[in-house]
Each structure stands twice: as C-alpha cells, then as structure tokens.
Automatic annotation (TrEMBL):
N-acetyltransferase domain boundaries: 18-150
Protein name, UniProt field: N-acetyltransferase domain-containing protein
Sample GO molecular function, one term: acyltransferase activity, transferring groups other than amino-acyl groups
Organism field: Hyphomonas johnsonii MHS-2
Pfam (any one): Acetyltransf_3
Amino acid sequence: MRLDEPGLHNDVVRLDLLEESDRARLGGSGAISAMWEWLPVIPSGTNFHAYFDLMLAMKAKGSIIPFSITRQADGAFAGVIAYLDVSRTHRRVGIGYVWHPPEMRGTAVPVATQMAMIGRAFGARMRRIEFPIAAANERAISSLERLGARREGVLRRYMRLADGSWADLAILSLVDSEIRVAIDLLKDRVAEMQLA
C-alpha cells in the first residue's frame, strides 16, 4: 500500500490528494485567517496563494503528500492534512499541516481524519509516525498523548511564523505497537461520537 493511493476514507471523512481545484474551497474557508497562527514564513511570501502554491510544488517533488478532507455526511469541506518527511527506507512518516473548520472541531471529523491517516501509514508498513506541533498548542498535544503518542522533546525557536513571532516545535511520536493501539482507540472514539 502507498501513502498516496486513492480511496483513503472511512464512514466520517474522505481524504483526496490536494489539487489545484481545492484552492477555491480552502480559500473560501476560515483557513486564511487561521493560517497566521500556525504557518511558518516562506520565501515566496506570507499570503494564501503563496502557501497553496508551495503545497502543490512540494507535492510535485514528493516531499509532502497533502490531502483535502471532505465530510462524508454532507460533502462539506472539512480541512486539510498532510504526510511529511516520508522515509520508506526507515519506515517513518510525519503527519502535520492539519486544519479543520472551527465548527468541525470537537466532532468526529478530526478523530476520523487522524484514524484514516494513522491507519494508512500503518498499512504502508510505517513503524514510526511523528507529529510536529507548535509547542504552544497544548490542546493538540494532549489529544495525541491520550492516543499514546510520546512527547520526545521541544525544538526551541524552531521557526518564524507568518505573524512574525517565533515558535517552539514539540515532537511527538507513535512507534511499533503504539500505532495499532492508537488506531483502536481512534476507532472507539469515532464509534462513541457517532452514537452521541
């Protein structure tokens, strides 16, 4: 199984490789205002189109595998996520560039999205999944720790953000059997949320 194979979905979300046609969907969402909180400065400028162009260029080079997320129930745009720093030799991959519309946070959408991404990585025989997250984002870090991800450390003043501030980067990971446990926990959470 390849990380970029079509058919990445579950009952809650469908993930499709990010394409030029997604520019309008993402541009029309709340992502543009939220991007200043989490995107690093890039050489081509700090505006939405520069970031979108960079994502497509990195996808073409194979340095990331970005997806647009669609909620299955109604076809609504549900955000973006990407595989980062893929190493087939060392069987490791990162998951990052995650954004969901505010109204979908706290629903089954983010949980099902992580379930799909971690499940696909496991199916592709990855033995290490990394999560680089702004150290200030304690909510996301706590969520991953509840899955069994371990905080490995913090890279201090790692990057300058689009708003000009500097951010520390926390690195969390799941390895080996922790991946399977996380998938099972995510499945249980999605099932509970769908019943609620």
